[in-house]
Amino acid sequence: ANKDVGAEPQRADGDGGEKNLTSCQRFGVCYGVGLALVLVVVTSAIALGVSTRGRVDPYFSVEISGMEGLDPLRSPVVFPESNLTLRVDNRRPIRQYCREKSTVTISYSQVDMAWGELPAFCVERRSASELSVPLSRPQVLLPRQLRDRMASDMHVGKLELGVEIEPSRPQDADRPCYLSCIIMSGHLDEPQLCKQFCV
Fold it and tell me: Origin, by domain of life (predicted)?
């Protein structure tokens, strides 16, 4: 029998070419799943970067000015007074840094010499701030051995003072952080970096 040249080829089944398509291709599931995975990866990367940058600790430094009443050779009882300046350099690009009310203590050879209260404060992102804290103690009784050591250290300009800054009520803080600094008598008016410890 002769075949019609212009006749349309017969299909093998009634479904046409759809049976040759996978379910993924037919409904666009592959494209949707792929797009969703890309969005999840990108979102997670952004969230991780933001979280990491948000946890960057500021730089802390302290200096002491106007140290008075520290004359161990005159009397076993001294009346230390000074002013402490705390500088906070907030390097965070997206978050401000806030700190609750704190207690500042200056010590020599593990003996508290003076203290004061640092009010609660916040420093905006990518900015710095300085806070001044007056420190004093009514009287400090120094043992003879400690007086001699202090006088010797002061004479050679190597009196080492420890500065501790801790939350006034650490039990109320979500993440209490403590600052520890060392200042030498010959560099009292020079900013000295502090270390921060959080628990």
Answer: Eukaryota
Tell me the domain boundaries of the chain.
16-54, 59-198
What sign does the CA torsion over 64, 70, 73, 78 have? negative
Strands 160-167, 177-184: pairing kind: antiparallel
Number of Cβ within a 10 Å radius of residue 63 = 19
- Burial code (b: 16+ CB inside 10 Å, e: under 16) for 64-81 equals beebebbebeeeeebbbb
Which CATH architecture fits 59-198? Sandwich (2.60)
Is the pLDDT at 15 greater than 60, yes or no? no
And the tokens for 165?
A: 């800054």
What pTM does this model have? 0.69
